[in-house]
């Protein structure tokens, strides 16, 4: 099987990153975490903020301890668009139900109660990864996109002990309000309200900062420094570009590689990532053998014109609320089929993500914006998965319709160190016992594999 070497392609970008990053270093706190600082004079004003509010027993009786229902009564707050709940220990699961209702900004109109997906532990760095072992990472629910809001109410109900009553009885107890043996809620519950800010027009982006220059430089062989979009190429143009940049590596090969046309990709600058939030350095694995498909579980109410705002919100939630080094996914896809660069480090490179606990090494994570347990994903989004994987997996010689082996880093399906045979395009649930990427999206992965292989010319 033909396999393209990517090491030569790293040289120019690595030099550019080093030079750009050396211009200025982010401020660090005594714990080693990055501290936010004001934008330099004359630089672009990148909006966004996070409100973090402690939750407390709703009946006011703190003597009931962690088995009491906790929450926040109706409250006026600063503007936000995305909501989630975090707690102290990332290894503790929240067994129960989290619901939120919000008030649209400038109105008296409150939404109905909405459930927030509580099982989010499987979206994270591997257990022994430096990102996970900082002692700073928090447990969390999935984030939920609620739109422009300035009022919020939340309730967190503990689940009943499933060992005593069984899963169905426990769930029924939570929903009906029956009393029983409740599982304790995690310590340190906080409500996180994220404001992505308004999208500044391209003309007002301003000059590159050192951090944004470093993030852009790793893609400088694909688009000009500071570009907001990496343009699409035909399959022929994609092949010619590879031959031009990696001709020596390909000269001795007898067969042309299977690779799909490069899709259009909105860069981090394109979705207005605040680069001072993330950690400065980039983390890489050795190769890309597989792609894991996810849904963000943020809901389906966003418009495609809001996708950049949704991504900025997820990014801020991952970094400021959950305390990861960067957004967890390598790529994101909206319902209209637009593709977005995720974790910084270069779209052609094997960037280490934090998307599939136990299988982040030598893989990439693609998240479709939305929730697909019962809602069907649009064909444009499924096709975007096919186009993206045909190109990116093709760079590393992987067959989207084939199988591969990945070594587990530990999880609830496979012990650490076990070599697991997986589809090259897998769903998150193939590596971890989870509902992600939702049953409706998971059912479309066969179509994505076939289409991706066809784009590669197989």
TrEMBL record:
InterPro entries: Amidase/PGRP_sf, Amidase_domain, PGRP, PGRP_domain_met/bac
Signal peptide coordinates: 1-35
Domain N-acetylmuramoyl-L-alanine amidase: start-end pairs: 277-438
Span list, region Disordered: 35-56, 161-188
Top-level taxon of origin: Bacteria
Comp. bias (Acidic residues): 162-171
Keywords for this protein: Signal
Every Peptidoglycan recognition protein family domain range: 263-411
Family: Belongs to the N-acetylmuramoyl-L-alanine amidase 2 family.
Name of the protein in question: N-acetylmuramoyl-L-alanine amidase
